[in-house]
């Protein structure tokens, strides 16, 4: 899989996980504010746990700050960065 | 038909209801900041209290630390027993209070409050909430409460449901939970309260040095079961150690909420320093603001790790938290020492 395919694949998985956790009544867009959709710290941790399982990564303390999980786009970027390090 | 919704704003602390409700009201008036930042410094931990290891230390004049009164409230207090004896109508009290700009702080049975954890389980649970609105047309009362995921939210239910929640309630601590507070935010404090930098420095020294805090004569006679200031971190470490050994299991009340409170304590410190910078323009405190921002973010990470532990049960997380707490305690002590030294050397008697 090339880099571009990887990014797309990561994004699809992140989108799926976020939608499953937040359970909004509509599809969540890439730059929709998850906080405005009611994302709280417990849901955020659920997302993080699922991401760690899905991508076999460990999200370190610096990346455990809720503000880093504002959009699907920002989460995908974070995961991409962590996956690239493996 | 009248409808009143008294204002509420985002509180500086949400860890415990009595602070959250008080601060939600005070946040509506900028002048209250002086009182807030001169207080909300001290922390206390009751060493053997598994349910509330850490709280802000703001006791009332009877030594009760879970009250919501402040000099910024005019207040009246009734008890449920007294209302019953006088055969007063609960809904009339609520309407008259709210229509006269009184918020109402009281204990109810959450089994009757939709959206709460206990309502979803159909289990009795006495907890506090803050009434702040009433609509005569719909006969609904509006209130601030924690929902099932412990987020603070405003919602409304019919008055008769609130009345049921009020009367069909077994208190855990009758002496205090039997009380209804009618709270009115004052237009003016009634006396001059300037920000006292010397007082603030003294409180920070007391906090850093883990000394007992004495606000009235009752505080002088507490036994050794209390810890103050930075020593509360040791209570948290002890509790987490007990979790590691399987002696306790309550992560929510024992770790997550206290960790959240510690994060808020640092957030309030950041805001206090910003307030200081506004009023003492010759004091350059930006580096201290950065240090406490770092502490705040660190506690946010720890809190999130604690949530992760609650969701996964992974004991490695708790061991990590114990190490981090010990380190953060010394980091905070160091930051406080630098701040105190700086303020003392720049403080002049005329301030």
Keywords:
heterodimer, A: 86 residues, mainly alpha, Non-ribosomal Peptide Synthetase Peptidyl Carrier Protein, Chain A, 3 helices, 0% strand, B: 351 residues, alpha+beta, 2 domains, 12 helices, 10 strands, globular, Butirosin biosynthesis protein H-like (chain B)
- Largest sheet, strands/sense/barrel of chain A: none
What would the CATH topology of chain A be? Non-ribosomal Peptide Synthetase Peptidyl Carrier Protein, Chain A
Can you tell me the CATH architecture of chain A?
A: Orthogonal Bundle
Radius of gyration of chain B: 21 Å
**What is the CATH class of chain A?**
Mainly Alpha
Poorly predicted segments of chain A: none
Describe it:
The complex is a heterodimer of chains A (86) and B (351). Chain A contains 3 helices and no strands. With 86 residues, chain A is mostly helical. Chain A has a single domain (3-85), classed as Non-ribosomal Peptide Synthetase Peptidyl Carrier Protein, Chain A (Orthogonal Bundle). Chain A is globular, with a radius of gyration of 12 Å. The model of chain A has no long low-confidence stretch (mean pLDDT 90). Chain B has 351 residues and is α+β, with helices and mostly antiparallel strands. Chain B folds into 2 domains: 3-38 and 73-185, no CATH class; 197-346. Chain B is built from 12 helices and 10 strands. In chain B, the strands form 2 sheets. In chain B, strands 1, 4, 5, 6, 7, 8 and 9 form a 7-stranded antiparallel sheet that branches. In chain B, strands 3-2-10 form a 3-stranded antiparallel sheet, with helices on one face. In chain B, a hairpin with a 4-residue loop joins strand 6 and strand 7. The radius of gyration of chain B is 21 Å and the shape is globular. Chain B starts with a strand and ends in a 5-residue tail after the last helix. The relative contact order of chain B is 0.14. At the A-B interface, helix 2 of A face helix 11 of B.
